Queue: 3 jobs
Job 1
Amino acid sequence: MPLDEDKYPGESGRRRFIAGVVGSAALASVGAGGAAALNTATSVGGGGGGPTQYVAIENTDGPAPRGMPVVPVEVTSGGELRGVFPEATTEELGGQQITVAEMDMGGTTYSSAWFQYCGIEQYEGAQPDADADDMLRSASGPGYAWQSDLEGGEVLTVDMFEDYETWGNGIGRDGLGKPASARWRSEAEGAKTIPVQVIRSPEIPKMINGEQGFRDYSNLPGGVRNFIDAATDQGFMAWLNKCTHFCCVPSFKQLEGSTNFGGADGVYCQCHQSVYDPFSPVKKQFIARPRPTE
């Protein structure tokens, strides 16, 4: 069961989840009235929690309450992959100075609050004003055979994905894209790992152009399409790889068992069989958990 080792030390077992993370799933179902009340209670003293709209890879099956948030990607002039984190600013709210990080991306407000669930709101790299490394780096023990020659922490580069239009590993159909397990904003000493999954896929330009591909992208809402156009680069896209159910770490085309649960061509979480579709981005709302007070 691929749990985050920082959040779920072996000696503690799954029960720690009840005390620390269960609110994330419960808050996902809060109604409008409850959401407004919660926002009043948490937006100031809680460091930026409350109702948050975001773009996600869609949850299509299993108990997960919603999709996982997209992490915008850009390719540097040197061919390295970098995740985009919104710039921090300071605002006054309710008589208090709070730091927020948000920016317009393709007409969508992209905010650090997208990542405030599953305890990640407490991670150093998720803080709006953190001086963090934005490069997308290979995870340690990533599980993909092609990454076995990479050092943990090595920056991912475009040339590592040259075979993305034909890549396959015997799970689902070949040619949907080449994935990598990565970490992001996690290089500071003692920082907890923010897990990200990266994929380079020939479906991305079809998605942006509204063409027929693995999915019929002509029905993709314009707002989502514009965001994906702004948040992807050279066919690369990424998402925060934390299942919104019990905060496990899913995978795209990594586990053979995914074929038994309709997840062979999606992102499959073996803990409770939730499935996500990276080729079906959607705009959703959830209640972001407040960051620790400063």
Note: The first strand starts at residue 50 and ends at 61.
Job 2
Amino acid sequence: MTEPLLLLPGMMCDGRLFGPQAEAIAAERDVIHGDITGAADMGTLARQVLDAAPERFALAGLSMGGIVAMEVIRRAPERVTRLALLDTNPRAELPEVQARRGPQIEAVRAGGLDRIMREDLKPNYLAKGPRYGEILDLCMAMALSLGPHVFERQSIALRDRPDQRETLRAVTVPTLILCGRQDALCPVERHELMHDLVAGSRLVIVEEAGHMPTLERPDAVTAALTDWLAA
């Protein structure tokens, strides 16, 4: 029996982040969109994902979703049949990044979610391309639909997250490591590190894409995920 695929989106994103991939893969297996909006720490988020998940599943996460995915497989490796980590980071947050979280949270509490997302965060996510404006608008729609309380919880969870490099060394299931070539937030060398940590993993670099290749180069990401699921 084909295992379901559980997808975990990035910060201030929802299932629309994986829209093209979910539509294609749903013809072959069940696709489930996990919720990582309900807590301010990675341990609780991982537990909530596991509580809502099938007994066994393939797991793919992008950015913050990949960070939660690493905590999920750390806690319940026997339930994860294969792992895909997209545009993400196994390390704890750097002090200089942590220092930016507080002012951003305060600005959002004061009503500045739209500004913080549009000016400080989202423009850094995407490679320049013909669909840049369209994808940025979708990113803003996802963020504004989730709202300021989710922004605060997710910011704290990211700020306080643990290092997961030892977790990756213990992974034994088929693993895909994927990122956009122009990802400025989680650059290629971070994915080369993860590829080195997970024995037997496959590394895919998507050209002409930044931090959200699922939307920027959807066909390339769908092909990589399809190959990973068939491996």
Note: The chain has one domain: 5-93+155-230.
Job 3
Amino acid sequence: MLKQSHAISEELIEWRRDFHMHPEIGFELHRTSKIVADELEKMGYRVRRNVGKSGVVAEIGEGGKLIAIRADMDALPILEMNEAEYKSQNDGAMHACGHDSHTAMALGAALLLSKEKLAGRVRFLFQPCEETVDNEGKSGAQRMSEEGAMEGVDYVIAQHVDPTRPVGTISISAGPSSGGVDSWHAVVKGKGGHGAHPNKTIDPFYLTAHVILALNAIISRRIDPFDPAVISIGSINGGFAENVIPEEVKITGTLRFTDEAVHQQIYAEIKRAFEIIRTLGGDYELGYDVGGPPMINDKFVTEMIEQTGKDLLGKENVQEHQKTLGAEDFGEFMKHAPGAMFTLGTQKAGHEDYLLHHPKFDIDERAMPIGTAILAEAAKRFLNG
């Protein structure tokens, strides 16, 4: 499979560079999804377009088990600073997270599998809007799942490029691999007045200061040290003049977790932190935007991908994945079937300091046949039992 994948490396690069030059954001993936759907139909896949607004679902094979392979397609609202010949032609949009290569490698795996006699079915999930959510707070994985993309799936797998690891390596580990994420937002309400007479006010900055201390103590003093979790404050806004104490202060942040019980405990502790405001004579409003669940790699699926990597690349080139609380909505698909994601080493010489979401992010394209081959070979092995 690795040999076959290298044989189509020119097509992989051509697809990837085309997507890189024409990045699209969120659910507005009209050009990208059309190209993907057209290519899959040429390969003989049964294709559904506009799933989850602008996603593509394509299936091949008959009967037996069903494995899904997911690739995200959306770009980021970033102005690219690279000067490569395939630089983004859409100012303010850039594939700075490798989704262009994810899409190209999944197309390559689809091409290889279209030539195989399969012992079951393979379904490709080309997903929009992994980086953000729509006006109802739903990501592409949520939208596609709601429209039946995961119906009947036995296993689901995916990959993500990793610019910190060398070409020729992959990493994967069972268990929590990335965090679930929610955003929180609050209004701290006091009583405004003149800065010269603070005794006649209820200063919302004073109230907010106590909340900040309480929030920062939640993880270190209320959550079990063996349960990974994070609460971060992202913005504080209030006031309009140096001698006026305002009526209110707005504060927003994020929380990360890998366990649902911890998730609910954090909710309770954040509320407890804001209750300090009422003790001190103020009031507050607190709300949440619920994001994606944590990504928990299934043990069996992880071991299958791990063994595939060892057989194709050598044992020394399959490494343990470094866990992170960064968010990835692939966990939405794993609510419906056991699955796992591996990371693909794509480190490019001269770009070691330009990590995911950086305006100079790029990949070493020699990694693409490797990612393609592992997806295709792993799918075959799942179907063969």
Note: The chain has a mean pLDDT of 96.
